[in-house]
Amino acid sequence: MSEITQPETRGPDQQTDEDPVRGVQRDFPHYQIWREMAGAREPRYVAQARSLGATVHMVMTPDLGELRNALETAPAQLVSTSERRPLPRG
Fold it and tell me: In which band, very low, low, confident or very high, does the pLDDT at 27 lie, cut at 50, 70 and 90?
């Protein structure tokens, strides 16, 4: 079973070094981003779109820089579910 870790919540006076996951989360608010530990393997970073209309739904990688790059190069188009139209029949 994998262990999921979220950034710790601290007051502004208690924060010394910013959690790198929190920085990526701030830069990409349309994604929920977390660090996941699975047994003795290296940690994985996961980004999951908060909207079904995101062009990139999920990214999983052991490298936080690679995760950031994947989200930066993804098309910035987010389509809300109310804007989706059914495919024409024919």
Answer: very high
d(CA 56, CA 31): 10
Side chain identity, residue 52: L
Residues 11-26, mean pLDDT to the nearest whole number:
72
CA-nearest of 40, 39, 48 to 2 is 39
- Name the more confident of 16 and 64: 64
The CA-based diameter of the chain, rounded to the nearest angstrom, is 62
> What tokens were used for 14?
């208690």
| Helix (DSSP H) and strand (DSSP E) numbers for the chain | 2, 4
Q: Mapping DSSP to helix (H, G, I), strand (E, B) and coil, where does residue 84 land?
A: coil
Q: Where are the alpha helices (DSSP H) in the chain?
A: 20-27, 64-73
Mean pLDDT of the region 2-10 = 53
